[in-house]
Amino acid sequence: MKKHNFSAGPCILPSEVLQEAANSVLNFDNLDLSLIEISHRSKNVVAVMDEAVALVKELLGVPEGYSVIFVQGGASLQFVMTPFNLMKAEGGKAAYLNTGTWSSKALKEAKRLGNAIEVASSKDKNFNYIPKGFEIPSDVDYFHTTSNNTIFGTQIKDFPKAEGLNVCDMSSDIFSRQINVADFDMIYAGAQKNMGPAGATVVIVKDEILGKTGRDIPAYLDYQIHIDKESMFNTPPVFSVYVSMLTLRWLKGIGGVAEMEKINQAKADLLYNEIDRNSKFYGTAEKEDRSNMNACFLAHEGVDTALFDEMWKAAGISGINGHRSVGGYRASMYNALPLESVQALVDVMQEFEKK
Amino acid sequence: MKKHNFSAGPCILPSEVLQEAANSVLNFDNLDLSLIEISHRSKNVVAVMDEAVALVKELLGVPEGYSVIFVQGGASLQFVMTPFNLMKAEGGKAAYLNTGTWSSKALKEAKRLGNAIEVASSKDKNFNYIPKGFEIPSDVDYFHTTSNNTIFGTQIKDFPKAEGLNVCDMSSDIFSRQINVADFDMIYAGAQKNMGPAGATVVIVKDEILGKTGRDIPAYLDYQIHIDKESMFNTPPVFSVYVSMLTLRWLKGIGGVAEMEKINQAKADLLYNEIDRNSKFYGTAEKEDRSNMNACFLAHEGVDTALFDEMWKAAGISGINGHRSVGGYRASMYNALPLESVQALVDVMQEFEKK
Ligand SMILES: Cc1ncc(COP(=O)(O)O)c(C=O)c1O
Ligand SMILES: Cc1ncc(COP(=O)(O)O)c(C=O)c1O
Ligand SMILES: [Mg+2]
Ligand SMILES: [Mg+2]
Ligand SMILES: [Mg+2]
Ligand SMILES: [Mg+2]
């Protein structure tokens, strides 16, 4: 029996996508060859890359003047590539909103290349809220946010906007809700939440912002090179891009991001209502900043969590252990997680309350 | 019918590996979860990473004092990481042997960070030989070679040795022949030839050479960080590492690198003998420098290649079109290509000669 997979990432993917991915590992496009043993320059793999890019553009409504590329290295390499591409070589300045572990790591990389400042931080309360009402200096090259804080279960609902360029790490909520791409100059996201297997990262970047820093950028780190070579500057992570493409096809099939957002809202409402209602548990994030992707909750003092742990495991639930930075539980409800899985967890929570 | 797959990379993998990879995409380790939808920190994925590293060490006889890591970004990111980690920040100097497109690209990245020189080049003859008898300055931080030139079909048989550190890009012949790892301070290789799918790169590095440049290295580019985090600094390319691990298990099963080398020698002898014997074709690389992985050959003037192309396609052969830099044909005979596939190509060449 398939598990109720609440893993925080890499995470659940649609079962029809997994089936098709497995088939293509054996025989891709009826070529009598595996997807993973043919040239990335073959017309079939180029078609996969093109469709993946087209689906990203269509599903997010990417306006004219933006490029979409797939690169390797995860979001962590984007922490490095962002300042290399956007921070001026002389007198470079960037501002970061620090909402958790990932924002902190991104900021650290920018500091190596120039004057990167933290405009606000929620570290004082273990990142359980999104800072608001702060000032962003008007003279920064770019301002960086993290849309969803995978570890601490908070999510930006109203994006603050800087006068300079606006850059966002959307690794853990891209394609989960509607966003206005035109509000951003650059968006990046590791595939391994709502898109596909680890190993690919999507970058959506406004073309006109590139090439303006005066930096000599190493080739692999240069967005313009990946754009010019249509993500084939070097051998791309073919399998990860292919499975991402399949997942985006699936998303389009269920009605796109607007429809997905409704389903995700229903899942989040179901679980957060139960966390609030249930006398044994409480949520850790401020209510108004709660993430619809990652719900972090703790048991009240004195609650027998060993029994609860036994019960959810017996119900076929997996992946709800909290991150060590928060403890307790973290139920990640990415796109491919069905409402039934959330219901299964809620059922266990209710059963447990009665014991 | 499975094709005779001579692709230059990504390239043929053992069919039992493909079968097991497909199974694990559906249900990994009987977890009732896919390999690509579970946490990289789960004990099953950590076990995959550990086994992959152990197999690299065992199969290549990696001595004590070396670390083995898997990173993303392909060999192209190693072109960047090499100088970042090994070239001194002040007065850094490196030497490169230029034997083809990949060496040239590697050299270009080093030049951005310091004084990188070309000690010798075979560009004068379209890289159809390996330069010999050149001097390597004794004061360079490191000396870089490319063991096998995938595009031009040449291979270093006797590695020149520098007084400084010796670094080698073995992307297209690692695990194909015995090497003495102790002769090198660092070896890197993209997975997508003899190891697995695109998306993972293996780096074998002598621990004591790191941390000596005085450079502030971006986290993702820092070998020491990947070593300290056992290739889990960030989400690793799980699928690519897993399939690489399966391929290395397969290699161990057939008797390891020593046995593989004999098989590869037999395949190369079979094809090169035919290229030499056959009146319609000739090889492009100098005989003493011929690659056992990639055999490049051209048809003599006036030969009807359209007919030949029809014939090999009809025989179920794929991937032997030459790279545009050389033209003609390139038959790549990586580890997983069976001798029977080479025989099939030789048969077609002989049949064609008689027409
Ligand atoms: C919001 C966010 N940013 C960045 C990262 C780091 O991603 P990667 O492991 O692909 O480098 C993660 C990983 O979980 C994340 O959730
Ligand atoms: C010898 C060699 N080095 C480097 C590369 C570049 O590798 P990647 O595409 O993984 O960056 C290749 C690719 O074919 C290669 O054959
Ligand atoms: Mg976080
Ligand atoms: Mg409660
Ligand atoms: Mg070459
Ligand atoms: Mg001949």
Automatic annotation (TrEMBL), chains A, B:
Keyword Cytoplasm: yes
Localisation per UniProt entry: Cytoplasm
Molecular function as annotated in GO: O-phospho-L-serine:2-oxoglutarate aminotransferase activity; pyridoxal phosphate binding
GO biological process, one term: L-serine biosynthetic process
Assembly and interaction partners: Homodimer.
Organism domain of life: Bacteria
Reaction catalysed by this enzyme: 4-(phosphooxy)-L-threonine + 2-oxoglutarate = (R)-3-hydroxy-2-oxo-4-phosphooxybutanoate + L-glutamate; O-phospho-L-serine + 2-oxoglutarate = 3-phosphooxypyruvate + L-glutamate
Cofactor note: Binds 1 pyridoxal phosphate per subunit.
Residues involved in L-glutamate binding: R41
Domain Aminotransferase class V: 5-345
Pathway linked to the protein: Amino-acid biosynthesis; L-serine biosynthesis; L-serine from 3-phospho-D-glycerate: step 2/3; Cofactor biosynthesis; pyridoxine 5'-phosphate biosynthesis; pyridoxine 5'-phosphate from D-erythrose 4-phosphate: step 3/5
Function: Catalyzes the reversible conversion of 3-phosphohydroxypyruvate to phosphoserine and of 3-hydroxy-2-oxo-4-phosphonooxybutanoate to phosphohydroxythreonine.
UniProt-annotated binding residues for pyridoxal 5'-phosphate: A75, S76, W102, T150, D169, Q192, N234, T235
HAMAP family: SerC_aminotrans_5
GO cellular component: cytoplasm
KW Cytoplasm (keyword) present: yes
Cofactor: pyridoxal 5'-phosphate
Protein name: Phosphoserine aminotransferase
Gene: serC
EC number(s) from the headed UniProt entry: 2.6.1.52
